């Protein structure tokens, strides 16, 4: 949070894009004051129409402001509005903001450089901020904006400008856990004396005592390299500091293939363990292009839908953000409109639909029809109010979702549903989203330690030597 470490009270001028990105930003500045220029209110009013996430955020901001203005004496509005309303769902022990919200009620003018015409909204905000910096002498005046160019211009004219950091899950994306760790070569020697092991229904368990368990959490995958390879998952971390491990299936072996697919590295094997585990309701897979996220997920989904009958069908969705120029409106039904965005699905289905017996074109066509009949493609735009029961839901390109959108999607899960989020946080196309504020980063961090959630970061590209080399050097 950008305000908690400040020793003195500040006055923050909020840009429109901050409120469009996070309507609750009004409540995030604790003991500091907020100033909203009139041009910001005008831009909010212009952006309130429509069904987009941004329009919904704007309408929520308007409701928050209306709530603050409900019991305010208009003769004292220049003294600021108390920010006393707590957000719905906020913990009871959460600190209530003590700052005040100031709306622009007078003309704040300042001479901008000739190169910055005041007719533009961004430049009007700069002029107001400059005027406040001169008029308000008892506090530091800071402009908060998600717009990098506006922050650059603000610095150029002598203003202090900052990004809005409250939506960031982590200070550095390198702090995001990978979901797996390597054990030291002396692991068994260090823990052998207090080691306990047993079997239950064909599953092998170990109870480990020692300092290593302090950083472990449920569904963390562990691997010990040669001479005697060992792979396990943390099932439970107990109050006395001990941890219960369970030996996991090695999906790198042909006899453990999933829909004809075998893992090519330990991380892919961990991913298949998470995807095939009936006790894990939520799985997130991170990795660059070619690491096998979609192929492994579809193989696990088809196995559990068509062979094991654990789910009734596969539901796949993704954000429809083009890489290049938009091709415009698409004809057809919801599923037909989404088909061009599902090239990754079709490419992987071609691999999974290959028959071992070298059957003819009719057999391949029948297999494709069977697979596609159990896969439903859905648009994110129509997810509100839905409940998925006994479905295997795949959210592709999840790095382009905000934390709020991700929360909306995951809460659609009904009884017997498994959710899988796939993405590469190094390829974010949504404006104002970063690696540290992406909804995918948000859920990976928040689900850490939940016994029914698992995460694996895939690091090794397996698509081709060309793709792997390109990912490294380009």
Shape: elongated
User: How many structural domains in the coordinates?
Assistant: 3
**Known CATH architecture of the largest domain:** 3-Layer(aba) Sandwich
- In terms of DSSP E residues, the strand content is 15-25%
Count all strands and give the number.
Answer: 18
Gap from first CA to last CA: 34 Å
Give the CATH level 1 class of the largest domain: Alpha Beta
Count the helices. How many?
14
Uncertain runs with pLDDT below 50, 5 residues or more? 322-327
Helix content percent band: 25-40%
Q: What is the CATH homology-level superfamily of the largest domain?
A: P-loop containing nucleotide triphosphate hydrolases
Main sheet characteristics: 6 strands, mixed
Give the rounded overall mean pLDDT: 83
Strand order of the largest sheet: 3-4-2-1-5-6
At CATH level 3, the topology of the largest domain is Rossmann fold
Radius of gyration: 26 Å
Tell me the structural class.
alpha/beta
GO molecular function, one term: ATP binding
InterPro entries: P-loop_NTPase, PhoH, PhoH2-like, PIN-like_dom_sf, PIN_dom
Family: In the N-terminal section; belongs to the PINc/VapC protein family. Belongs to the PhoH family.
Protein name: AAA family ATPase
């Amino acid at each position: 949070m950008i305000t908690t470490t400040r020793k003195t009270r500040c006055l923050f001028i909020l840009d429109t894009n901050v409120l469009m990105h996070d309507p609750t930003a009004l409540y995030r500045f604790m003991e500091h004051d907020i100033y909203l220029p009139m041009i910001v209110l005008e831009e909010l009013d212009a952006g309130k129409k429509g069904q987009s996430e941004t329009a919904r955020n704007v309408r929520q901001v308007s409701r928050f402001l209306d709530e603050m203005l409900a019991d305010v004496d208009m003769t004292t509005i220049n003294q600021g509005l108390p920010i006393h309303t707590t957000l719905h769902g906020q913990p009871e022990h959460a600190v209530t903001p003590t700052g005040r919200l100031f709306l622009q009620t007078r003309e704040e003018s300042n001479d901008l450089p000739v190169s910055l015409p005041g007719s533009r909204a961004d430049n009007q905000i700069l002029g107001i901020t400059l005027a406040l910096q001169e008029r308000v002498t008892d506090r530091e005046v800071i402009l908060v904006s998600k717009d990098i160019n506006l922050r650059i211009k603000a610095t150029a004219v002598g203003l202090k400008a900052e990004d809005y950091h409250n939506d960031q899950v982590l200070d550095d994306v390198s702090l995001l856990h990978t979901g797996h760790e390597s054990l030291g070569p002396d692991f068994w020697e260090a823990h052998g004396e207090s080691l306990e092991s047993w079997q239950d229904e064909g599953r092998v368990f170990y109870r480990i005592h020692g300092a290593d368990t302090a950083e472990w959490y449920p569904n963390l995958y562990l691997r010990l390299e040669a001479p005697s390879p060992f792979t396990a998952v943390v099932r439970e971390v107990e109050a006395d500091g001990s941890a219960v491990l369970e030996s996991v299936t090695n999906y790198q072996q042909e006899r453990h293939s999933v829909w004809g697919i075998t893992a090519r590295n330990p991380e892919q094997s961990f991913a298949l363990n998470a995807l095939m585990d009936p006790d894990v309701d939520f799985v997130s897979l991170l990795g660059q292009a070619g690491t096998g996220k979609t192929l492994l997920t579809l193989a696990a989904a088809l196995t559990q839908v068509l062979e094991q009958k654990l789910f009734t069908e596969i539901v796949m969705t993704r954000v429809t953000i083009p890489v290049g120029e938009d091709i415009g409106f698409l004809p057809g039904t919801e599923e037909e409109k989404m088909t061009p965005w599902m090239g990754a699905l079709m490419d992987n289905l071609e691999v999974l639909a290959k028959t071992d017996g070298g059957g003819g074109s009719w057999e391949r066509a029948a297999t494709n029809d069977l697979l596609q009949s159990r896969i439903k493609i859905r648009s994110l735009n129509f997810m509100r109010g839905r409940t998925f029961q006994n479905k295997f839901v795949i959210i592709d390109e999840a790095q382009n979702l905000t934390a709020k959108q991700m929360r909306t999607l995951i809460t659609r899960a009904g009884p017997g549903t498994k959710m899988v989020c796939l993405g590469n946080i190094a390829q974010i196309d949504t404006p104002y989203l970063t690696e540290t504020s992406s909804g995918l980063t948000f859920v990976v961090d928040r689900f850490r330690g939940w016994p029914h959630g698992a995460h694996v970061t895939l690091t090794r590209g397996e698509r081709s030597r060309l793709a792997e080399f390109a990912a490294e050097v380009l």
